[in-house]
Amino acid sequence: MGNKKMEIQNIINDTQMHVTINDSGNKSLKYQIAGPKTRIYVFVTLMAAWMVFLMFAVLDIYPFGNRSLVYADGDQYFGFLGYLQSTFFTNNNLLYSWSNVLGGGMIGTLAYYCASPFNLLTIFFRENLVLGYHFIFAVKFITAAVCFSVMLKHLFINADEKTILLFSVSYPFMGYMAYYAWNQSWMDGVIVLPVMLLGIWKLIKQERPLLYILSLAFILLSNYYIGFMLCITSVLLFLCTLVLTRAAFDKKTARICISYVISSVMAAALSAILLIPTLYSLPEGREKSVLELFRDMHYLCRPLDTFSMLYTHPLENMNYGNNYPIIYIGIVQFVLVVQFFLNKGIPKLYKTVAGGLLFVFLLSFSNSTLNRIWHGTSVNVWFNYRYSFVASFILELIAFYSFLHAREAKKHLLSCWGIIMGITVLIMNSSKGNVNVRTLFLDLTLICMFLLLMYMYCKGTARRICFMIIGVIMMGNLIGNAYLTLKNNLDNVDGYIKNMSAEKEVVEIIDDHGFYRRGSTLISGRCYAMLAGFSGVQNYASTENLDTLRTCDRLGVEQEWWWCRYNNHIPLSTDALLGMKYIVTAPAHKSEYYISKGQIPDKDLYVLENKNALPIIFPVEGRFQSGETPYNKFEYINNCWNSISSEGGNIFHKIDADIKSEPSGSGRDIHIKFSAYDNNPVYAFVPEGNRSLDVQEYSRYQDVFYIGKYPPGEQREIIIHADNSYEGDDEIVLYSEDQEILNHKASGVIEDNLWIEKKSSSHLNLLYQTKEEIILSSTIPFESGWHVYIDGKEVETYRNMDSFLAFGCPAGSHEIELIYWPRHFRMGAMISGISILMVIIMEIICIRTYRKKEGEAAI
Hints:
Strand content: 15-25%
Strand order of the largest sheet: 23-24-30-26-27
Number of helices: 28
Mean pLDDT: 89
Radius of gyration: 31 Å
Helix content: 40-55%
Distance between the termini: 30 Å
Number of strands: 30
């Protein structure tokens, strides 16, 4: 029993506890935070900055070259960063954005994509956002290293500063940071994690929970998704730290557990200003119920596949859709982790806790249910194991502790080599598709060099030289892995710079300060409307309004999954209905129907004005809901326009066509013969699938296509190339769009001269006069956050055309206001405000209690 106590005491001594010996020989424990010298943080900052800028220079990353970290899904984060920047210089705000698909609440998007406080740095990069984007990456990279050094310096006060410097700088070079370099939002988790562990340690050792509360609240505010993962992590780290620092479960331990629970709740309450409105704004359908989680449980990643990710990988070849856990921390750290479990100088309790923690992650990577719980029970699409940075952090911490006890592992270096060789052989036999032969050979060479250096280091032979060479191997290996991961993935920044230059010309040509929407085929990423700051239909976000996406699809807009995109196949009647007043496009058929405002010669782009574009809010004759019945897209557009004005009848008229299929090569050709109905644009509905058409701007996600304009009665034929699995033949239809009827219906609305003033992105004003009670509809996506006031009195809102906002307006002249407040935003703000006061009171009480205990201990 005495030996067990001494073992636990030794563990405690390793982690930030000073032991003093009285004159009588009795041990007395004095808990205190060591006052770390700030010079180590300066060295870490300078070294990390030098390393990240070296990486930028080697990879030709902007501003050292013309390559960019805006790749994969980085266009989303870059676009939303552009919108965030616009809120400082325009009348846009963070409550609502018209750059979503037709417009939408911004709180959920902000909370997931761009709420990180680091993004405030974009204020200083108004003229060069791409430079700001890379600067923020560098700042986050450096901050991660500094935070790791702060944790190490406080938890291991006797650790050599050179060792802290080496491991701190290596921390942000983990494979996760390189693989997800395009996703700056997730990097905040890597930054906060070491601070959160230090906060947990302070909560347990000093019963001062402030650092833990603030760190957890910070990540929940920065990115609730990663924050949820760190909530799970905090439970695991708290339990592990409790086991390592508390010899028995007594009243104090129970008090600490209660304090942890309260502190966790307080952290969530502090972030309620974002969490609560976000909870009510997220789209449904991606989460799984508890029963579904266990019913669908299956095996995911084999353990050997997970182990293979500890070796250097050219990760650019890995499929984003089925990647393995990104847990690479460097080949030197991998060896040190193996040494940790072989080192008899490290207490068994440490090994048990560390092994148990790693087993939790190994099990989570292998089990679909546990893996999905880590992801908030949502169905994960692409980029799997997004919480793997936590496992990397644990491995890095184990490697650091192992290096501190390297001298005691001298006898086990050969055993370590044997175990690693055994793991390598198993991986080569079972998971050889996961490793690269050349990098594996280099890894094995580095492992042998490192073990030899460790032998010399442990013997005391040229320790400084050995340490320097080990440092070079560590950092060279990590930078090499980052280089292999990024070199073929980086995007070119030239296209963005040219498009932004063209965008300035577009704004000058339009020169319209009213409130309107714009369609654009000029694109720098899927969130170009956000980036350029105009109201449109193109956007891509996991937080989009699903009803709006479905309605856009019915109106002939290119739509897939969570995104929409503008192109010239969108019918002219849809342009008019959605208020697309200006169109930026390459030469296309729409130039015939719209007025040319100007041209951008360098990009071969035209700026067109659509005189039929309706205002965002307009009067209608009646309400229209399609219900759940199957629909024809052209008839759907007819019904929308007929609800606005029944005069003139339908805009679209069906064209009879002869459709036949013939074998062709490995697939078949679908021949469609028809006679032109009139001298109007002809469109075809061709269901999605494995098919293609020989048309301009073809997209496999588009199912409404502009075919052409022909003299009445002319015989035409179009051919659709499809494979044998395509089943959309029976649904293919052709329609003619009557421009005379469209002009008549649109002009009847436009004559009202309804002027809408955009006071801010969440506040619209208009004056309207009507002789009788009418319905004012809109193409504003319906959300319960919209409040409509007529002459200062709030009126009821409801849906029209399935997903758009509408409300009744009595006869007379009226001032109408539309104000958007996210659901429960005020409640969340109130909870956060109260929580701030409670946290301040808690900290005052904790400080007084701590000082009282210090005074008693000193007597």
